[in-house]
Amino acid sequence: MKNELQINRNGFKKKNKDFFWVKLAKISAALVFLIPVWLGNIPAGIRFYSYWAIRELVKVHTVINTFNLSKLSSEHFFVKFKPEDRAAAELVLETAELFYPKVTEDFGFVARTRIPVIMYASREELNKSFGWDADNSAMGVYWAGTVRVLTPDAWIHETDSRGVRTRFISSGPMAHELTHLVVDYLTGGNYPRWFTEGVAQYEEYKLTGFQINEPVFSRDTSLYSMQELAGKFDGLPDQSLAYWESLAAVRYLIHFHGEDVLNDLIKELGRGLDFSAALKKVMRIDYADFEKKWQEWVQERG
Question: 281 Cβ partners below 8 Å, 6+ apart?
């Protein structure tokens, strides 16, 4: 998920008509991966397709709830929007198709059906769809097979249409959220939060040049642990630091092992390994050593 300043995600705090389904999906997806702990080892394929079924159920529900909106379709996407926002919807659809071949080629992914994109006319409407506080500044969110995006007109204050198009392509959320979708489908939802955020930010930087600002460090600044990033990501008090660390950890992986390491890790996650086991299989390193080495690398570069 991406916001204007930088990125923030999943603060499901208020209830609305979609909140039940969002909560059900989160609980069900968690159970898919917790049940093996309670009942013994369930084959990874069963967990993968159970998660797939839950995600598709929520996606269908989300799309059904947009029955009153207009629709534009392309080869790989369809956008739902208010009739008066057609020009903005055309830009969103164009940008989605622009990034689709680049992101999918990088990760070896092919969408089997058109990807739903829901465009909201205001930040309040986007926030309400997730039960977020009104002041959340998200521009885009991926959740359960669907990309939700704020209309460019709500945050791009250009008078020239070419300027709006350039700004939306270079600073908008489409590359970032599409990468989230691809990682989610390839892994069956089996990834730590920091990893999908780091991969999405890295791919976004490759395609648009956009990146989060590096935090200002002082003697009192301490990095979050991998345990905190994996288990408490959205509740960490310094969200900019959490997002920056996610990107830094992914950049460390790529710096020393090349971009193929991301696809190798994603492949193992898709086979049902947890991240620690995938890391050990792909890189012959344990999680603790990885944490120590990437943080040392970051501090040396700083």
Answer: 268, 273
